[in-house]
Amino acid sequence: MPDMHGRRTRRGIALAAGLTLALAACAGQGSAQDDDGATGDGPTELVLWHGMTGPDGPAVQQIIDDFNASQDDVVVKPNVMPWDVLYQKVLTSLSSDDGPQVVAMSASNVPQYASKGALAPVDDFYADDTWMDTSALPDAAKHAADFDGTAYGVPLNIAPMTLYWNKDMFEAAGLDPEQPPTTWDEFASMAEKLTVDENGDGKPEQYAAALADHTTVPIYQMLLWGTGGGVVADDAATATLDTPETLEALEFWVDQVREKKVSPIGLSGADADKLFQTGKAAMEIVGPWMTTGFDEAGLDYGLAAPPAGPDADVTLADVVAFTVNAKASDAQQDAAKTFFAYWNSVESQKTWADGSGFPPTRTDIPADELENPYSAVFGDPELLGSAKVYLAGVPSSGTITDSIFYPALQRVLNGDGDLTEVFTQANADVQAAIDKG
Amino acid sequence: MLWPMVQSAYLSFMDYNRIQPAQWVGLDNYRELLTDPAVGNALRNTLVYAVVVTPVTVGLALALALLLNRAIFARGLVRTAVFLPFIVSLGIVAIAWAFLLDPNIGLISHWLDGLGIVSTQGWLSDPQLAMPAVMVVGIWKTVGFYMVMYLAGLQSIPTELYEAASLDGAGPWTRFRNVTWPLLSNQTMLISIMAAIATLQAFDQIYVMTHGGPYFRTETLVMLVYRVGFEDLRLGYGSAISWVLLLGVFVLSMLQWGYFRKRAVTY
User: Fold this and answer.
1) Scanning A21, A60, A164, A431, which has the fewest C-beta atoms within 10 Å of its C-beta?
2) What is the C-alpha separation between B155 and B142, in angstroms, rounded?
């Protein structure tokens, strides 16, 4: 299954950990690589880590091969591993002397490493046209990996979330298969028809939606934006889980899931994909990486912007960014930027979009120049224009998401505790995590 | 073995995130864990898991050993079946059970639905059922190993003792009570201590099955150490928690050892 997002698979199978654990394994070494391109003659070598192990992998390889063939100064050596493995290894490798020079990672993970000085700033990439004209890159992608006013990443991809809906199931429920819900109210009324409990045992045989509440792309967090709420304010410094707007959105969605049973509780991202793929849920909000899997399953589905909230029509953009190891030499840093510019060129982005189904990272490639039909849908300027990155610039984003937000959400979905109380406490915890850095 | 422990003890007095230099913070980590609700929660879960799983595993292992020590049908096959889960990789076991318990495609969920026991969200994400589910799998996984240890013990008991007891008119229960049980006390001591330590360190199987969820309902102390150490990057704090756990396991093992030693039988 293609999986572009780190959080979903970051926690894979853990091997047995002993009592004092491998805490002392901080002395562990990454694999040695004798690629100090700064010395000697010949081309500068860049070791690049990325996690594109899905159907998008060949497109990445294609662009790297093209780049290596296009000039003699820089050689990019990719090292592909699943995202969960990459995130497990990345910190050790960045703190050792023989780590990779370039690491691709979800932009939401960048502040965590940038705040600790593990990444080199890339401000000069955007400063002028030395490397490329960056005005073609969408703002959401450009600033996704900013921390403290400094840029630490160059976009590898941008993936806006869309609503996938199963046309056959809409038709069977007596709904127009070409009309997905465009507002929360429409969602609620359609969901009523799409939720089917045939034998009345309280467990629907068919769900209206598959909404994942852990190890997934942040779908619930995105829904909070619909009322003007959210987990953290745009200043990346203020927790907003206890504001009236956030609580209003939470009450709507918790009621939908808990009382109206539009979605099962306790789904991971992979569970939600499976539920939609097997025709047990009629809708799912997810990114472009699922099109291949759903096509192979033979689903007749449509793609549209997620239903708009009462106060705002925002979708979530998931951005994977290239970052540069703070220990890379000047020559390597320059070489990396040369490669980033090549990656984000018109030609490369056509290769990328056609090969992966993702939208191009550039706003200046007309839809009719793309062969893959999904690239155009996800690259729709209106959709990308309303896209926002979750927890941009917040170093403790991982803790906030996995240790505070999802547990609080699961508590109220399971009816364990008062919603306002649970989220007032969660808000205090988020604020404490932000303040700690 | 020793060096990592010394390093970890040193780290427990530091604030360290792997990239920036470590900072000495004295007893701050230990002070924090005394009031940290996450530590209290994980400690509670660990104790509940250990208190239920340890005696059930030991009791079940003994029962199975007694049963499979007799000449019953397909004895070898049954012994193998009970032992098999122990040698299968834990990751595979956990994934297989997660499938079996899946609310939508799981075989066990399907059977339970048929019996009228409906879990709308599956055993592993239901806050009431997640802990019992991981307990059942934990017992199923390890009971075969302890059974084999008991079998070895049973076979080392001289048959003359049983013959003598029978001549004195002892029935099966009396024979078990006065011959088998006392002569198995060395095995019982070893097995109980091993099982208790293993449950107090429960991590991998639960981690793969539930990640400690839903909302920390199955998070054990070792999982908490992993979360704060490797996910929140607070290695000093994680070390402090693991040292408190180590101390607890040590004290408990000593108590068990003292208890059983008085009852040990040599022959």
Assistant:
1) A431
2) 21
Give the pTM. Answer: 0.84
* Closest CA–CA distance from residue A100 to any residue of chain B (Å): 15
Point out the residue among B8, B204, B231 whose CB comes nearest to the CB of A20: B8
Question: Is residue B229 within 8 angstroms of chain A, CB to CB?
Answer: yes
Residue type at position B100:
L
Digit-coded pLDDT (tens) for A121-151: 999 999 988 999 999 998 888 889 999 999 9
Q: Which of residues 120-179 of B touch A (CB under 8 A)?
A: 120-122, 124-127
pLDDT value, residue B266:
64
Please state the separation of Cα B98 from the chain's center in Å.
18
Indicate the burial class of B52 (C-beta count within 10 angstroms; 0-12, 13-18, 19 or more): middle
Distance, CA of A425 to CA of A407 (rounded, Å): 12
Query: Would you put residue B132 in left (φ > 0), alpha (ψ -120 to 50) or beta?
Result: alpha
Q: What's the rounded Cα separation, in Å, for the pair A352 and A162? A: 19
Name residues whose C-beta falls within 8 Å of residue A221's C-beta, 6 or more positions apart in sequence: A230, A231, A316, A390, A391, A401, A405
Q: Which residues contact A163 (CB under 8 A, 6 or more apart)?
A: A180, A181, A283, A284, A285, A303, A304, A305, A306, A307
Contacts of A402 in chain B (CB under 8 A): 231
Q: Which two tokens stand for residue B144?
A: 């075969």
A147 near A189, Cβ under 8 Å? no
Query: Using CA atoms, how far apart are residues A423 and A408, in angstroms rounded to an integer?
Result: 7
* Interchain CB distance below 8 Å, A266 and B124: yes
What's the gap in Å between the CA of B224 and the closest CA on chain A?
A: 11
ipTM: 0.83
B77 touches B59 (CB < 8 A): no
